[in-house]
Specification:
alpha/beta, Multidrug-efflux Transporter Regulator, Chain: A, Domain 2, Rossmann fold, 5-stranded parallel sheet, 8 strands, disordered N terminus
Length: about 325
């Protein structure tokens, strides 16, 4: 399989198939701490209301050396999520226009005319043309109307990259265009990730990455965000990591779930030997979650793992179920 097809496969690794926001200054740094006045302008409420919420503990705050209130981004996001409020004026706090979605559109949809096919087609064209602002617009509208990272992955990212791969196979796209699209997505994922509320200290931990020889980052980054969206703490180990290093990380941090995304296997026998040795060495009680376009029906029966997922929606359900303490219906999802 050529490099492009493998890279497209990464996008479908765990993902087989809220207001629209405008372009913002990508070089502008976003502040991590806001004054009550900034938050008041952003929410279209009075400054005294914000101060009252701070004093009542509704909005957690820090204090400067001079005693002035400062509201960290993560605490603001917590407040929005808990109260179903939205940011009316993102520019007041220097945030991208995806900000209004947090706490205001989860699971409800903002646009009854939400046209998935049109957004998907526009997103694919923007990936190929290298238009980061249009990709951001499409991703933001999708997330705004679904309120789900898993839906972004399964319904937008994966199909778009499949079509990009088909375009390359037909000679209408070049490999650099697909790679450039991957880089754009990674940057947008980082923007979206920072808008997710920080998990609480007692939240379960999930961690993982890709094995040595697998350089594809998109699926592992999406997994990280799906777990965080469900309230988990996460540690992303990155791509192309030797099993010995994965094992060392698992033993040191003792996560509840360790994920392994596998989009490319160079040699089946070598992969199975190294993977199963890694699986046997994991701490007792740890759940090993696997997925990826390289893990076919023919190879999975020879692997030792706790759960396999074909989509990010399945991962999201798994994360939510385990965090809530609900017994799993079966060891394999």
């Amino acid at each position: 399989m050529d490099d492009l097809s493998r890279n497209v496969g990464v996008s479908t690794c765990f993902c087989n198939g809220r207001d629209r926001f405008e372009r913002f200054n990508e070089s502008e740094e976003v502040s991590e701490n806001f004054t009550p006045k900034q938050v008041a302008v952003a929410l279209h409420v009075s400054e005294s209301s914000v101060k009252r919420w701070c004093d009542q503990g509704a909005i957690r705050t820090d204090r400067t050396l001079g005693g002035h209130r400062r509201i960290p981004l993560e605490f603001l996001l917590e407040f929005l999520e808990a109260t179903n409020r939205r940011v009316i004026d993102p520019d007041a706090i220097g945030m991208p226009k995806i900000m209004p979605s947090i706490g205001s559109a989860k699971g409800r949809g903002l646009n009854k005319q939400f046209d998935r096919a049109t957004i998907l087609e526009g997103f694919k064209k923007s990936l190929l043309s290298g238009s980061e602002s249009e990709c951001r617009r499409a991703l933001g509208e999708w997330y705004a109307n679904t309120g789900s990272i898993a839906s972004v992955a399964d319904g937008l990212i994966a199909p778009a990259f499949r079509e990009v791969g088909e375009a390359w196979a037909c000679g209408s796209a070049d490999i650099y265009e697909e790679r450039r699209g991957c880089e754009i997505c990674m940057r947008l994922f980082h923007e979206l990730r920072r808008l997710l509320p920080e998990p609480q200290g007692a939240a379960p931990l999930a961690m993982g990455g890709t094995p040595a020889g697998d350089r594809y980052q998109l699926p592992s980054q999406l997994l990280d965000m799906v777990f965080r969206e469900q309230g988990w703490r996460t540690i992303g180990l990155g791509s192309d990591i030797p099993y010995a290093s994965h094992l060392s990380a698992a033993r040191k941090h003792m996560p509840k779930i360790f994920w392994l995304s596998v989009s490319h296997i160079e040699n089946k026998e070598t992969f199975l030997k190294e993977f199963n040795q890694f699986s046997r060495g994991l701490p007792k009680g740890l759940m090993l979650l696997v997925g990826g376009c390289a893990l076919t029906d023919a190879i999975r029966p020879s692997m030792s793992f706790s759960a396999h997922c074909d989509s990010l929606e399945q991962v999201s359900t798994l994360a939510r179920t385990i965090k809530s303490g609900t017994p799993l219906p079966s060891p394999q999802i």
